[in-house]
Each structure stands twice: as structure tokens, then as C-alpha cells.
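Late entry, adenosine-5'-diphosphate complex.
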Amino acid sequence: MNLILLGAPGAGKGTQAGLLVEKLGIPTISTGNMLREAIHNGTEIGQLAKRYMDDGCLVPDDVVLSIVGERVQKDDCRKGFILDGFPRTVPQAEGLEKLGIGIDHVVSIEISDDEIVARMTGRRVCLKCGATYHVVANPPKAEGICDSCGDELVIRDDDKAETVRHRIEVYHAQTEELKVFYKNKGKLRLVDGKQSIEDANHAILVAIGAAK
Ligand code: ADP
Ligand code: ADP
Ligand code: ZN
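Prediction complete; structure with ligand written out below:
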């Protein structure tokens, strides 16, 4: 099963992807995590991407498309994969089609702009394994330490208030139209992102036909 998780920054894509990996047994491909890893490793792509990410702008389509195109070829993607944060523009979605990659369901996690701001201020992430936490809604077992891999948790550079505001604008201007794109193809499933993490996860499983 090939899935796309769509939604504004902070909607819960990364959190839900982490739960779906366990339940569906397929890997997550998070372009945000892959780009942050590239920045951390100081690669050429990382250096280029950092300029856009620090400003809350999208990294150019050809850059993310080539990263995803390469990643889906890997062996672990044979039974399917979860795309988290990709595609984010119509040209990226068209690029996916040109690569011959079919999609079964596009789950849009719906959340209001006000809720986003509250979530981002409490978000803590693990740069090593990509796990996401929230200081109130989803705290780690030990403060500041990743449950999964034991690395330290940090605040993302682009989670400061003014950058978050710009990322919300970018979502409405460039990403939200993907809902129409996939609705027209009969692939769009809407899920309320304001419910608890567990309830949202159940709603996603129902929406993709993996639970009743
Ligand atoms: P969030 O989960 O909060 O929406 P991501 O981790 O998905 O954030 O993305 C963080 C940043 O990485 C984006 O603001 C953008 O600069 C870059 N990025 C991630 N995925 C893409 C993509 N598919 N296309 C362009 N830029 C991307
Ligand atoms: P995205 O990948 O869409 O940017 P995240 O999964 O990183 O979103 O979630 C953003 C923040 O909100 C994180 O701190 C996460 O722990 C928290 N969060 C995710 N889902 C919920 C939820 N249903 N209720 C409350 N907080 C949530
Ligand atoms: Zn970790």
C-alpha cells in the first residue's frame, strides 16, 4: 500500500507516520527528516536545502523529487511506503506520476491555523531517528531524551513563531491545492487532526480500509 500523509505543518503527519509504520509494516519516507539529515551531515543537498528551510520556504521541486525517486527504489519499499510531507506542490505530485509511482490513498489531516501554533511551540524532535514529541500532548518518558533511540531532543530551527507563520502561508498557497488534485482522482480521505493522537490514528486506519 502506497500512502501519502498531507496536512499543514503540525497537523500530526510525522506522529501518525510513526504509528502507521508499526501497524502497517511499511516504511515512512519523510522528506523533512531526510533534508534535516542532509543538513546535519553537511552534504551539498543539505547546504542548499538549509537556505530554504530556515526561511520556512519550500525546497525546489527537482531536489525533493530526486531524493524521493531514489528512496522508493530501495528494497524495503517493495510492499509499500508512507510519504510524509511529500508531495507538497502539484509539480511534485505530477513528478511522482511520471516516475510511475501509484498512490492508493491520500490522507489529509485537517487542523486549524490556531491549533498549529500551539503545537509547534511544544514540539521536540529527535534528529537521529526522526521521532516527534510534544512537551504536553506526547511527552517522552525521560525529559529531553528520545524514547526510541536515546538521543537528545531538540527544538527545530524552523519552529520559531515567525517561521511557523510563514510555513502556514506556504501551506495554503502551494500545498493545499493538492487536496483538489487528489480529490479529482478519487484518492482523498479527510481525517480530523484535532482529536487525540490515538483517535486520529484509528480514523486514518478506517479511512484507508485497514480497520473498522
Ligand atoms: P512539517 O512536518 O512541520 O510540515 P517538514 O519536516 O515536513 O515540516 O518540512 C520542513 C521543511 O522542509 C519545509 O518547511 C520545507 O522547507 C522542507 N521540505 C520538506 N518536504 C518538502 C517537500 N516535499 N518539498 C519542498 N520542501 C520540503
Ligand atoms: P507534522 O509532521 O504534521 O508537522 P507532528 O507529527 O510533528 O506534525 O506534530 C506536531 C506537534 O504536535 C508535535 O509536537 C506532536 O507531538 C504534536 N501532536 C501531534 N498530533 C497531536 C494530537 N492529535 N494532539 C495533540 N498534539 C499532537
Ligand atoms: Zn530518536
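The mean pLDDT is 96. Will revisit in the morning.
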